[in-house]
Amino acid sequence: MAVTDPIADYLTRLRNALTAGHTIVEIPSSNVKKRITEILYDQGYILKYKFEDVAPQGVIKIALKYEKDSKDPIIRKMGRISRPGLRKFSKADDLPRIINGLGIAIVSTSKGVMTGKDARKQNVGGEVLCYVY
Predict the structure, then answer these.
(1) What angle (nearest 5°) sits at the alpha carbon of residue 76, between those of residues 53 and 100?
(2) Closest by alpha carbon to 127, among 113, 111, 99, 107?
(3) What torsion do the CA atoms of 24, 39, 96, 25 make, to the nearest 10 degrees?
(4) Sheet holding 59-64, edge to edge
(5) Which DSSP letter does residue 57 get?
(6) What is the pTM of this model?
(7) Around 25, how many Cα atoms within 13 Å sit in the side-chain half-sphere?
(8) Calpha distance 73→94 (Å, rounded)
């Protein structure tokens, strides 16, 4: 089955696994998805990840992170901003701040996929892919 928006599919698989209380989710791999996974790990939203190269395109295995006391997921909300039918681009000064800096915006720039904060520091704009908090 062909997926028209792979990043939205990635976010939906994560959201569904968190809602169902799963500890691990498997997602078909791509370079952009790998970079988004690395950003989520660096920002502390996921526990671990592993890239497996199996035919035909590979798999990303992600260990999800939950709060210790209440078992609520660390990721409260995530959503797609730019989509295939309506691309959203921002200059470095206009990149969105998610919940006054408590969340992250993930941006695809000419220097690669990075958080909105890193893009502002490097003074590069780009396509705002999604937000996570």
Answers:
(1) 110
(2) 107
(3) -10
(4) 24-28, 59-64, 46-52
(5) T
(6) 0.95
(7) 22
(8) 30
Instruction: Note if the bond before 73 is cis, omega within 30 degrees.
Output: no
Dist CA 79 CA 12 (whole Å): 9
Tokens of 38: 């690395």
Residue in this structure with the two tokens 């078909």, named with its chain if needed: 28
**Paired strand residues for 27:** 60
**3-class secondary structure for 70-133?**
CCCECCCCEEECCECCECCEECHHHCCCHHHHCCEEEEEECCEEEEHHHHHHHCCCEEEEEEEC
- Give the three-state DSSP class for 32: helix
Q: Give the tens place of pLDDT for each residue, 37-87.
A: 999 999 999 999 999 998 889 999 999 999 999 889 999 999 999 999 999
